Amino acid sequence: MSSPAELRYSKEHEWVRVQGDRAVIGITAHAANELGDVVFVDLPQVGAMLKQFAVFGAVESVKAVSDLFSPISGGVLARNEALSTAPESINADPYGSGWLLEIQLADPVELSLLLDAAGYDQLTA
């Protein structure tokens, strides 16, 4: 399965959808598949500051607990509160209803350090 072309990707399997000066972050379908059934997500509070490539939370599946790494820097504007009762949304729709955070983009130049869809597909091939 090829990754959505409009997104940027980290080597740690997070994606970013940029919308002006805001960005939505989630984990890729590849990561969700590798994790197995997601049962819990630990996300930062609104207002928290994220640093590019630093740990910002964790996702727990039936297989393991994995750290989440921020693909870009910025302040958290919103968290996907629906994941507290339906973490399986990450598996069912990782690029849609399974999103994790919306952040205020701190430095758009950081996007150049991420992979495009072709690069991410090559990484996960």
Report on this model:
This protein has 125 residues and is an alpha+beta fold. It has a single domain, classed as RNA polymerase II/Efflux pump adaptor protein, barrel-sandwich hybrid domain (OB fold (Dihydrolipoamide Acetyltransferase, E2P), Beta Barrel). Helices cover 15% and strands 35% of the residues. It is built from three helices and nine strands. It has helices at residues 29-35, 89-92, 117-124, and strands at 8-9, 14-19, 22-27, 38-42, 49-50, 55-61, 65-69, 74-79, 101-105. A six-stranded antiparallel sheet has the order 1-2-3-9-8-5. Strands 4-6-7 form a three-stranded antiparallel sheet. Strand 6 and strand 7 (65-69) form a beta hairpin. The protein is globular and about 35 Å long. The termini are close together. The model has no long low-confidence stretch (mean pLDDT 96).
Q: What is the CATH T-level topology?
A: OB fold (Dihydrolipoamide Acetyltransferase, E2P)
Strand order of the largest sheet: 1-2-3-9-8-5
| The CATH homology group name | RNA polymerase II/Efflux pump adaptor protein, barrel-sandwich hybrid domain
- Uncertain segments are none
Shape call: globular
End-to-end Cα distance, whole Å, is 10 Å
Assign the CATH architecture. Beta Barrel
What is the chain-wise order of helices and strands? EEEHEEEEEHEH
* Overall number of strands: 9
Helix content: 10-25%
Number of helices: 3
Described by strand count, sense and barrel closure, the largest sheet is: 6 strands, antiparallel
Structural class: alpha+beta
Total individual domains: 1
CATH class: Mainly Beta
State mean pLDDT (0 to 100 scale): 96
Strand content: 35-45%
What Rg, in angstroms, do the CA atoms define? 13 Å
